[in-house]
Each structure stands twice: as C-alpha cells, then as structure tokens.
Amino acid sequence: MPTTSALRTYEVKTFGCQMNVHDSERLRGSLEEAGYAEAVDGRPDVIVINTCAVRENADQKLYGHLGHLAKTKRERPGFQIAVGGCLAQKDRASIVDRAPWVDVVFGTHNIGSLPTLLERSRHNGEAEVEILEALEVFPSTLPTKRESTYAGWVSISVGCNNTCTFCIVPSLRGKERDRRPGEILAEVQALVDDGALEVTLLGQNVNSYGVEFGDRLAFGKLLRAAGEIDGLERIRFTSPHPAAFTDDVIDAMAETEAVMPQLHMPLQSGSDRVLRAMRRSYRSARFLGILDRVRERIPHAAITTDIIVGFPGETDEDFEETMRVVEASRFASAFTFQYSIRPGTPAATMPDQVPKEVVQERFERLVALQDRISFEENRAQVGRTVDVLVSVGEGKKDAETHRLSGRAEDNRLVHFAPGAESPRPGDIATVRVTHAAPFHLLADEGPIAVRRTRAGDAWDRSQADSCGVPAPVGGGAAGAGAGRPVSLGLPTLRIGT
Ligand code: SF4
C-alpha cells in the first residue's frame, strides 16, 4: 500500500442503494489503510463520489456535483476527485471526457484499487480510469470502516443472474458471485466481537444464494447458522426475490430467534402481464401466497416492498391490479417509483412508454393507498410493547423533541422519550407504543426497561476515542454505571446519503 498519502484527508459521498453504502465502507477502509484520514473540516484533499446508475437523473446529479468541484480543483493544488460506483462502471472514460478535472474513475469491481489509482494519478499528473469487467477480489475481503458500532452489513453475494428488463444491475455488477458460508459467518462473528448486535445480510437476490456452489437451500441454512452466533441478537437480510423464495427460508426465519420479524419483498407490479414484460418470473397469486405463509409462521412480520408505476405498456387495468395486490398485501411501507427510462436497459426501448402525466396520476393514487395502509398498520401497533435498538441519525427532529429513536424488531422506526436512564446508541429500550403516524411510531411514556449492551459500550468507546478521552472497556449490563461517559444518543456519526 502507498504511504506517501499520509496525512491526506478524504470524504466519501454516497448515492444509491445499501450495496453502495456498504461499498463506501470498504472505500473508507481502503483509504484509511493507505494512510488517509477522514476530513473533519469539510476541506478534504480527496473527494470520492460513489455513484448510482439506478436512480432517476443520476448522471445530471453527478455532473452537477462535478461542476461545483471544478472550482475547488482550480483553487486548491493537490485536491483530487475520484468517481466510482455503478455510473462510473457504465460511463467509464466518458466521465473524464465530460469532466476533465476528474482524477480517478473506478468501477464496481475494483473498489480496492482506489488508493493506488489516486497515487498513480498524482504521480503521473493525469487521470486514471480503471474499470474491470469482473470481480477480482470479493469486496468483503477489503478493509472496512463501518458507519455504525451496533449494526453492520455483510455481503453474501454480488451481481445478479436475473434479467429484469428495467434494471441496469446485471450489466454493471455482473453475474451472481456467492461467498462461501464459512467466510460470511467469520465476518459476522468479527462484527459481533466488535460490539455489533445486528447484522444485515446483503445481496441483489439473497435467496438465490448458493447457486454458484450448487446448494439450493443454502440461504435458509445460512440464516440458521448465523442464528447460532452468540451475542448476535438481530439478523435481517435484503433483498429476496419472490420467484426463488422457498418455504425452507420461511421456516428458517420462523425458527431462528435472532432473525427479525421483517421481510422486504419487492412486488414491482401487481399485474401478471406487466410482470411478464418486466421478466419477473412470479405472478401476483404466488406473491400473495408467500405473504400468507410468512404471516402464518411469523404473525407480527412487517412486510415492505418496492413498486414501479408506469412501466412501458402498463394499462389502466394493469395499474388497478397493482392497487388490488397492494390493498391485499397490507405492506407496512413501500418504496414507490415512477418508471423512467434507464439507458442501457431492455425496457428503455420498449414501445408504449406511458405518458408522464398518466404515470404521475397513478403514482399519486398508489402513494395515497399505501399511506393509508401504512397508517392503519401502524395504528394497530399502539399499545404493543416493543424492543428498540437505539440508533443515531434516524430521528431528524430528536434534538427539538427531546426524543431518542431506533428500530423495533420489525424494523419500524420508533421515536421515544428517553426517561430517567437515557440509553446509548446500541442499547435496547423496551417501550410501549402510544401513538402512530404513517411513517413512524411514538412512545411518549419513556422506556419500561433499558438494557445496556456490548453495542452501547462500543458506542461509548468510539465516542471516547474520537475526543481523546480514555474509555472504560467491557461491562455490558454489569459494567454500566459510575464513571462511564454519558451519551445523550444524539447523532454525531456521519450516515451515507
Ligand atoms: S433481481 Fe432484477 S431488479 Fe433485482 S438486481 Fe436482479 S435484475 Fe435487478
């Protein structure tokens, strides 16, 4: 690793999905291992933009950002700009054609090369563009600087073997590559040893995990094996695919205490005709059957989804089918998207693109329907007692309202009054839900109980490290109390955007 970069500072800006946020943790880890430090003064020597090609107008946003950075580049000798992620994988050298002041372009398959590319660009005084067609090093084997002390992500696979016609992922992230279970479990164990209580297993299509080494039941087995790890209290995963979601996974979820009662199950459309055009191989009846079986085994499961409105050729009847399936599904919440053309995808050149005003009108009806259902489902939570893993950065108004925030077991966002024994991020607060809103729950009576955890201790240590105060080590519930730095749980960690 290069050492000439010592004392140089960096900032990573992240766009897009959880996969990108996780990749940014690897980018930070790789940079820090190479001697860089995270900028704390807003004046980094290196800015890294981890781009997304899935979201609408991604390229306009990127070039808008780069336009602003051109001035900094002119004014500050030694300032470097690196662009990575899906849009970089897609646009490659055309990024330096359009923005010649960019120093480094790297793709989704070589995030570990960033420090070397930065050094090479500084040394040679010219832009370095390196895009690989396939993965050389599995990203999870790179050093990581984690965003959170109490929760972490672990990639189980990258890439996707499906060919959904609206999606650019297969062409940018390649075919599915699975990590071996032993490696995944070792990484989960390392996170737990570091203080994490919660792990989210990450892949473009988690339940096809095992396809590469020929075990169709591998994902359910992985959930069960992770559930055996001592100290791991919460296991989540994203995203499954309805086509390959089999009952052994539902059984593993129901029978593994640490797997949380939550499922993100992308519907995309309720119309079988549109699903066919999207090249999604399940149909709405199968989708609803999965939800029934999940709820039968896990009665309080909160199920969320993704839906695209206005896919090419979507008729009024197709859209009414989506409304019907959404009504029947009782999702806790939904990410709803208006279809827009993504260059490079098969759907981009399909005939019968739906006019913008029609998409808008359907979208508003769908959002209104889902908001009503979310509110009804949240109201049904009032009076329940839930365990909240206290988090940072999730309650934007916490400082004003004097509340803390976190996630219940089913991943619902809960804002709560801290009570006498203010829990730290990473601690577990047991609260009674007193009010519901469409997008969160409130618990205004203060916690019934607070469990101080290893994750809370890890949070204390990270806070003490960052301000130079020596931290007490160990403890958990037994170690709580006198002499411990008091944390108000206010957001201070930077969360990727
Ligand atoms: S399953 Fe479909 S939407 Fe998901 S990553 Fe693969 S191709 Fe894209």
UniProtKB/TrEMBL annotation:
Residues in coiled coil: none
SMART domains according to UniProt: Elp3
Sequence ranges assigned to domain Radical SAM core in this UniProt record: 146-376
Binding site for [4Fe-4S] cluster 2: 160, 164, 167
Domain (MTTase N-terminal): residue spans on this chain: 8-123
Record's cofactor remark: Binds 2 [4Fe-4S] clusters. One cluster is coordinated with 3 cysteines and an exchangeable S-adenosyl-L-methionine.
Keywords: 4Fe-4S, Cytoplasm, Iron, Iron-sulfur, Metal-binding, S-adenosyl-L-methionine, Transferase, tRNA processing
Enzyme class: transferase
Keyword Amino-acid biosynthesis: no
Cell compartments where the protein resides: Cytoplasm
MF-aspect GO terms: 4 iron, 4 sulfur cluster binding; metal ion binding; tRNA-2-methylthio-N(6)-dimethylallyladenosine(37) synthase activity
Catalytic activity reported: N(6)-dimethylallyladenosine(37) in tRNA + (sulfur carrier)-SH + AH2 + 2 S-adenosyl-L-methionine = 2-methylsulfanyl-N(6)-dimethylallyladenosine(37) in tRNA + (sulfur carrier)-H + 5'-deoxyadenosine + L-methionine + A + S-adenosyl-L-homocysteine + 2 H(+)
Family to which this protein belongs: Belongs to the methylthiotransferase family. MiaB subfamily.
Oligomeric form and interacting partners: Monomer.
NCBIfam families: miaB-methiolase (TIGR01574), MiaB/RimO family radical SAM methylthiotransferase (TIGR00089)
Protein name (Swiss-Prot/TrEMBL): tRNA-2-methylthio-N(6)-dimethylallyladenosine synthase
Protein source organism: Agrococcus pavilionensis RW1
